[in-house]
Write a structure and sequence with these properties.
homodimer, 326 residues, ornithine cyclodeaminase, domain 1, Rossmann fold, 2 domains, globular
């Protein structure tokens, strides 16, 4: 009986290679759309205030792969008042052939942020008009930063406009991202952002549309990350309906909640028009986007991203050396 | 952010104090019957042959306690051919107040065996006629050993009759348990066991009744451990119907599957007659058993046993020192 590998957050960060991670997660999306992944319903626990916590237990596997994964992710709103991070969690990998625990990734929720940002970069790579002239980031939180940090994997653009409601948070975002090589303009006018950016990533928990049809220019790609639960909405349903191409990481999830649900329920968007990201990736000879097309990707998060990033971390640099194998 | 305590199987074994563990799990059964535990439906994954594996993910908490628990338990039948243990797994504890991982117990399935044996000892303590004259163990597997090893916590009896179908396995059981201080008689005739034992523990995966009404003497207590899934049965439904007291760890589970389901479905046992173990434990002034009563406990396993044993291990000796706290 061999004991599982245990990796701390620092060790995990050292084992991430963003370039190959994008490829690993692209492959995962394709497997998901082919029906090769087994992902049962998410487990859930809730704790009353003052903890105000909830816990999601996600688990599953890619058929024929080496491992299955169990991820425990928590969000405890009460931690804010204690000066502790709200999100936390870990991921476990087990061997599919004998059930043995293979690895414990003490990632404190970090891998969820990264795999979410990777999905945004994948959408930008395949859907945005290249070269990108200016990146628009809607929101100033943690995921806004992760999204921006991942985009250099798919675009040379470093010109950024960020929108937020708080001058203080806008200034903090600008300062932090400037240190990482981005040229950041801040704004509290989302129409200004829409008028100047051609790759827009929305990362807020807004419940009213922020981006309106009349504000978005032809040729723009928008990736919506924030609407991960029923009732959240960042995009005008008429904007969704008008888009030339609408992509979802999971059609079934995005019709149930997320940006697309509102447009579908209002009868503005035919669900048959939605293209699943994994299907798009499995179609390399698809026609290129029109220069004036408006494209939208709605990403609600699918468990295969967790499977792929956990396996990526466990395999580490070995699988990425020229002669390496898993 | 403090890192979780990580304990290997050897370290876990050193932190178990059987006497206080019985009390901890008794308290857990009482909390379960009071409705103080939160235990959502079990998560499940399955793998096809040759692995022939399945994985159960159990999670929950006692309201107002310090931790919540996630347990991953696997059984991979294909491991037999590889000479590897079939069962494996681990338990995780997280703080209920801030969600932080507190402990990782790499128990390889050991704690599940122990908490199951503890439930058997609790049933024997409260239901058997004391002093016990002779212990009957039906079955020669791993859980049969764990059950017998735990009984000295509740009885001074060391006289044992063990029933099995294989002379080889009977001899191995006898030899092993003799080294641990038991005087073991082996038999392939379960009627002989029933005729000589007054505390009987059944631990097989039988699908046909082994113990029949006409074979069991007045004054006998029977704990049935084996029928943990639909279709499994160790006791004659007429024996269950005739018993003077029928106890279940979880009435809802035992009416659905387990020993009692058959008798209930055949109309031989009124479900209202079944007493839940935690309710019994919370009634210290209940009348004593009649000397000639036949009593039956059907134990299918409830998640609060996992919660309590995991917390017991994490708290370790500190909580059991005179001035200690959790």
């Amino acid at each position: 009986m061999s004991e599982p590998v245990i990796l701390t957050l620092d060790q995990i960060k050292q084992r991430i290679d963003e370039t190959t991670l994008l490829t690993d997660i692209e492959r995962g999306f394709a497997w998901y759309s082919e029906g090769r992944t087994v992902v049962p319903p998410v487990g859930y626990l809730a704790f009353d205030p003052p903890a105000a916590g909830d816990v999601h237990i996600k688990y599953g596997y890619v058929q024929g792969d080496e491992y299955f994964v169990v991820k425990i992710a928590s969000g405890f709103a009460g931690n804010l008042a204690r000066g502790l991070p709200v999100t936390n969690g870990l991921m476990l990998l087990f061997r599919q052939d004998i059930g043995e625990p293979a690895a414990i990734l003490l990632d404190e929720g970090y891998l969820t942020e990264v795999r979410t940002a990777v999905a945004g970069a994948i959408a930008a790579r395949h859907l945005a008009r290249h070269p990108v002239a200016r990146i628009g980031i809607v929101g100033t939180g943690g995921q806004a930063r992760f999204q921006l940090r991942m985009l250099p994997q798919v675009t040379a653009c470093r010109e950024v406009t960020v929108w937020g409601r708080s001058d203080e948070r806008l200034a903090a975002f600008e300062q932090e991202m400037a240190q990482e090589g981005f040229h950041v303009e801040t704004t509290r006018d989302v129409r200004h952002l829409a008028a100047t950016c051609d790759l827009i990533v929305t990362t807020t928990s807004a419940r009213e549309p922020l981006l309106r049809l009349e504000d978005v220019r032809p040729g723009t790609h928008i990736t919506a990350m924030g609407a991960d639960a029923p009732g959240k909405q960042e995009l005008d349903p008429h904007l969704v309906a008008r888009a030339d191409l609408v992509v979802a990481d999971s059609v079934s999830q995005c019709v149930d909640h997320g940006e697309l649900a509102g447009a579908v329920q209002a009868g503005l968007l035919d669900p048959a028009r939605i293209v699943e990201l994994g299907k798009l990736l499995a179609t390399p000879d698809r026609p290129p986007r029109g220069a004036d097309d408006i494209t939208i990707a709605d990403l609600t998060g699918v468990a295969v991203q967790d499977l792929q990033i956990a396996t990526h971390v466990l395999r580490g640099p070995i699988s990425r050396s020229p002669g390496g194998g898993g």
